[in-house]
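Hi team,

Below is the intake form for TTL11 polyglutamylase from Nesospiza acunhae. Please confirm the fields before the structure is written into the shared record.

FORM ID: S-0412
PROTEIN: TTL11 polyglutamylase
ORGANISM: Nesospiza acunhae
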Amino acid sequence: QFPFGRRLPCDIYWHGVSFHDSNIFSGQVNKFPGMTETVRKITLSRAMRTMRDLFPLEYNFYPRSWILPEELPLFVAEVRTMKDSNPSWKPTFIVKPDGGCQGDGIYLIKDPSDIRLTGSIQSRPAVVQEYICKPLLVDKLKFDIRLYVLLGLLKSLEPLEIYIAKDGLSRFCTEPYQEPTLKNLHQVFMHLTNYSLNIHSGNFIHSASANTGSKRTFSSILCRLSSRGADVKKLWSDIISLVIKTIIALTPELKVYYQSDIPAGKPGPTCFQILGFDILLMKDLKPVLLEVNANPSMRIEHEQELSPGVFENVPSPVDEKVKVAVIRDTLRLMDPQKKKRKDTQLAHPALAQAEVSPWQGQDELSGPSAQADPCVVLFCRCQSPERAPGASEELPDAAPGPEAALPSLCLKQVFPKYARHFSYLRLVDRVAALFIRFLGVKGTTKLGPTGFRTFIRNCKLSNSNFSMAAVDILYIDITRRWNSMGIDHKESGMCLQAFVEAFFCLAQKKYKALPLHKQVLSLIELCECRLAALHGKRLVWGCG
Ligand code: ADP
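The structure came back. Fields below:
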């Protein structure tokens, strides 16, 4: 710790809350710039909606959401239409303030007219979301799952690396669950699984055992489900898909922040981050994403009231079991010595090919593309002290290191391991790459009118039906609307989401008959192709 400042560079920087040190030029930082903003409830809901517009079936794991106050009329209208078409539909909604945590300010409603328009909502934007009325219950109680996900490692988030911890926490409500009615809507101990709320219930049970009490390990729930005959393998596979798809939805925005804080071509650190995924299981075992935490609690003790008003911190074995493993293995994967060895292997790929992934043959996602690709094998080789039969003696770390004494890794790589299953979903990523290319000024996150015009001109998207004057109007219309509802007023110009909207608009205009994802893909390919041709021409002119 450097309470008075730091003079020498470090291998690993561990920041408490967010990426905040602009004086880091090397090493690895445990936070991504912009992660906190990217996973806020409103930003996450927007990113999920964009992906759901493109891929409705693939992104149906996030509850339908509306942003308040700007989408209140839309919310009212859509609920009315859905009720008209299905009169037996009796929905419940959950209102969650943006940027809130620990259940703060959350309430349930039965009708859009119950939204509290006075006070907090005007000053504090929020998300209103379909409430999952039929969650899976254990011991008659609602619970959610906190899973830890490690993201990153390499510069500029490419190639993306995602690891999921093999165990997580299950946090229980403290009142038996009943489907929401007007009478029980306000009963937080029945409907909200937050530990920080339920700890204040007289029914909260602290337990040293992993499979009893109000906080248990996720693996204990899986054991229980498995003994009831549930398909636990399929559940894990669904959870892995949910995590990968969510990260795919978040990376475009993250890349914009990343290039702004750590511009390409300049010395800078690489980043990694432990995220907390909050997941609810429905009765039919379908996992639903509730939210992503950029700064999940890593506390391994809890407060106990010894006598009225006298508290003491006591160890929590369940937290310790899960969280210590996550931090330990994050540091193992970050070990700068290992990174060096990995670089050596990248320089001598033949050496690495001799190794076998400890996960080979245990693919959770079936299909031909689920086979480990060489780069996964490389990484597994670094992680595991075990030697595969026939592994070369000449490998640089042939001597057993201090790791030999450590338990096997709890963090399991799922990306790029399953990259080929999901690469077709990465359309917004490619739109973001175009956006970043035309940002121009280093350190910015918004596109100016000149940048937008250059994008249109270089990609040859303007013609007699779509004049440059129409281009300017499109820019002004969309930018103005996004800036009027945006949270970030620091910079003027077009933000990534506004550019994505403009891009979709152009794609719809150009390829009318196709479904949206095909329209967008066609326009991306056209732009990439025209930019490549332009780049080629410039190179030729340069040589000439
Ligand atoms: P916070 O950041 O304040 O904890 P969450 O989005 O995690 O906000 O919501 C708090 C709790 O409310 C969750 O842990 C879960 O128990 C419940 N909850 C949130 N969204 C839903 C939903 N769509 N359906 C059912 N329960 C929900």
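SUMMARY LINE: Confidence is low (pLDDT under 50) at residues 348-362, 366-398.

Thanks, M.
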